[in-house]
Specification:
Layout: H1 2-16, E1 31-36, E2 45-48, E3 51-52, E4 54-58, E5 61-67, E6 75-83, E7 86-94, E8 101-104, H2 108-111, H3 115-132, E9 152-155, E10 160-163, E11 166-167, E12 174-177, E13 183-185, E14 190-198, E15 202-210, E16 213-223, E17 230-231, E18 236-240, E19 250-257, E20 260-262, H4 270-275
Parallel strand pairs: 8-10
Antiparallel strand pairs: 1-5, 2-3, 2-6, 4-5, 6-7, 9-12, 10-11, 12-19, 13-18, 14-15, 14-17, 15-16, 16-18, 16-19, 19-20
Length: about 280
Amino acid sequence: MLAWLLLVLLSAAAAAAPPALPQPLPVPGGVALLPLEAAAREPPVAYYDGRRVLVLPHEGGWLAVVGIPLSAAPGEHVLQVRHGAAARRYPFTVHPKQYAEQHLTLPERLVHPSPAELQRIRREARRLRAALTHWRPVAPETLLFSWPVQGEVSSPFGLRRFLNGEPRRPHSGLDIAAPQGTPVRAPAAGRVLDTGRFFFNGNTVVLDHGQGLITLYCHLARIAVAPGQEVAAGALLGTVGMSGRATGPHLHWGVSLNGALVDPRLFLPPEDVAAATTP
């Protein structure tokens, strides 16, 4: 009887426990964790830069988990919070961060696409943007991920990229080099939001983990899931390839939080990040 009661109490505590949190790093491309002063049972509604923000129960109150875009200027930023009829502003500071540079040489077609290809690229950009800003009112199971593929980090997040000598947007994900055909697995449970073959990203899978936490898997050789499919942590999403704009087989892994692409390493346990091979 005592053992059964203990099991019930432990199960209830596990169900009530909030998901594990990412590492806070309030810089462009980082994550800010902001405690909210609202003790009510219903969560407050938070917005940053016009987009809904993930809010979780935390230490008897609530915590906003804010994704900061790479384009954010250092300085004071504001989280807007509503709880019922009450509204409040939570200022926070975004600190500067200098990312390294990367110079790549690619086929000219992939650097300067044709007019027809540009039309396709614009359509695909709108489609991906809609996926990466998607909101589903379900809390993620966890905010700590496992590596989606075993390999070597070949390009870290935030690199200021130059293609054939011309500046391009910073690298908004993490590139993990691995042999062609290496399995790519879901780092946490989620729902497949979109799949497809894109001009730049190649074969791509988009996973929705809930409350604006979205992950992206690009350059796959094949896709093993379909839109609408629920996947468990560790489920096969596809295999490593070099489709789209790629110079070799690798996975481009992206993490979007409230529509901002942020550093995936912040969602990995610190010991996993330390063990990774980086350039």
